[in-house]
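Why do we care about 3D structure at all? Because function follows from shape, and shape follows, mostly, from sequence. That is the central idea of this module. The next example makes it concrete: a single protein chain, its amino acid sequence, and then its structure expressed as tokens.
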Amino acid sequence: MQKGGALEELIENIGTQLRILGQGVLLKQNVLWITYGNMTFPKKGAPVDFLGVIKGIPVAIECKETISDRIRFSESHFSSKEKAFLSDFERAGGKAFVVFAFWKFNGLYIVKHADFEGYNRQSITDKACKMLGKKLNMNVNDFVEFVKSA
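And the structure:
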């Protein structure tokens, strides 16, 4: 089962543009999903959705999306493994980001992991993402500039 398909396809498209323009690479990480009852869990695979290099900067990206008003941060929706990897990646010198999509509001945001770490609620809304991060417009040059300035 594939989770986060639409958002991840958008990020893959940015990755393709980065590669074509010679500005970087973003690689989708594979995860094997299993269904147990009415719930889906990652069985094994990468701790984040994308890894890559943009303008010489190592980058890790985790994608979260919803069609509702908020994204919950339960263990099944944003695991401690994902959070720990993003923190470790930054400590190792890379830049880590969380990309949020709120399809109900046509909201797409990129948030620096360091800024997100201070957010201590059990869920996040479109409005909170507007304050924490930057609205993505799918322009690859804007994406590169945000990563470089982060």
